[in-house]
Specification:
Number of domains: 2
Strand content: 15-25%
CATH class of the largest domain: Mainly Beta
CATH topology of the largest domain: Cyclophilin
Number of strands: 9
Number of helices: 5
Helix content: 25-40%
Oligomer: single chain
Structural class: alpha+beta
Order of helices and strands: EEHEEEEEEHEHHH
Length: 222
Amino acid sequence: MTEISMSTARHIEIVWPDLGITVTAELDGRNPELADALWDSLPYQSLQGHALVAGQHLYHHVPIPSLLHLHASEKIADRRDAPDGTVFCSGLQHLGIKYGTLTEPMPAAPVGRIREEDIAALKEAGGAVWDAVYSTKKQILVEVRKAGTTGGHTIPELTATNADAQALIHDVFTETDRYWLTAPPELADLHEGLIPSGAGTLDTVLPTLLFVNGETRPLGYA
């Protein structure tokens, strides 16, 4: 781990307002380019997710396009071995936090760690998010901000010199901004079993949900 002085340490707060839980992480000098990109993007809000297969891992999408092309200078060979509370940035535009046992071996790029006194609160948040994802389906928002600030939310709009490219970028930005924190009505209806097209053989819903997920997930990553 890169040593940095406390005077230059940067701290972020990760807040789940609906849960009444706030934890603080220190950007500890690892992967400085990734950490800088995260720091410069703050504050933002996102829909909190939870790993469905890999174990006790929180992740959410971050509005940081540069994560797609920035390279990590330091990686943990197997994130299962990382201490609980390790914070990661990934090329899938994710901020991830390990809060317990993981089962999926994967290299990962750490940028910091939740302070020790907040680990219990982190585990409480992890359990509550899992309950929402698996059982209640309640949408849980997360806010990431510089420690000691009031927070907020912004999404960057990239620019291009070509007019046609700029128009396309603006359209993508507008739709992204509109639905970053709120599900598109047609997707929300789909999860309620309302499918005007009639898709779903013999009125089944789950196969249609799986099909739509299979299309939208790679589209989102792309």
